[in-house]
Amino acid sequence: LWVLRAIHAAIPDWGFAIIVLTLIVREAIHPLSVKTFKSMLAQQKIAPKLQALKDKYKGKKSPETMKKMQEETMALYKGHGVNPIGGCLPMVLQLPIFIGLYNSLTYTFELRQAPFVGTWIEDLSQPDCVYHLAGAIPLLGSHCINILPIVMGVLMFIQQSMTPKSDDPQQAQMQSIMKFFMFFMVFLFYSVPSGLVAYFL
C-alpha cells in the first residue's frame, strides 16, 4: 500500500498506479523468471531420462527401491543443474504482494469508489460490473457481467495456445492441467476487486 500510494502521488490515477506497481514487481522478479524458464527447458531435456528411471523401477514398490529411485532422480536433477520446484518460485514470491494488494483494494479508504480513468471501471475496490442481471449466474453466484475476468481467461487461453506442444506425456498432461487452470482462474477472479484482476491481467 505504501508503494502504491507513492506511485499514486506521481500518477494521480489508481488504475495506472496498479499497472506501474505490476511492472515494478515483474522487473524485480525478472531474474528469477529467467532462471525458472531455463530450469523448465532443462527439465524438458532430461524428461526422457526421468521416464527411463520410472520404467526401470516400474512395479518395484519396496521402500529400498523407492529410496534408490529417489536418490537417482535427485542425482539426475543435480547433475543437470535442475531445481524441480524452481518453476513455482516467481509465483510464490508474488503471493505476499498479491495478498497485500487484495487487502489494500478491499479495505483501504482511498481506493473505495476510485475509478480507472479512461475505462468502464468505476470502482477498483469492486468487480467491474458492466451489466446487472435479473438472476445469478450459475456456479458464480454473481448477478453481474464482469469483463476483466473474462478478458483474463481469453488471454490465458491465447497464451496457452501459443505454447509449443510437447511429445513428453508429462508435459502434455501439464498443458491439459493448465487449460483447466485457466477456467478455474476465471471462476476464482470473477467476484474479486477489479484492481486485483487488473494486476493479475
What do you see in this structure?
The protein has a two-stranded antiparallel sheet with strand order 1-2. With 201 residues, the protein is mainly alpha-helical. The protein contains 8 helices and 2 strands; from the N terminus they run H-H-H-H-H-E-E-H-H-H. The radius of gyration is 22 Å and the shape is elongated. The longest helix is centred in the first third of the chain and has 27 residues, at 30-56. It has helices spanning 2-10, 14-28, 30-56, 63-79, 89-107, 147-162, 169-189, 194-200; strands spanning 129-132, 144-146. 65% of the residues lie in helices and 3% in strands.
Structural features:
single chain; two-stranded antiparallel ribbon; mainly alpha; 8 helices; 201 residues; elongated; 2 strands
Mind sketching the topology for me?
Elements lengths: L1 H9 L3 H15 L1 H27 L6 H17 L9 H19 L21 E4 L11 E3 H16 L6 H21 L4 H7 L1
Antiparallel strand pairs: 1-2
Helix pairs in contact: 1-2, 2-8, 3-4, 5-8, 6-7
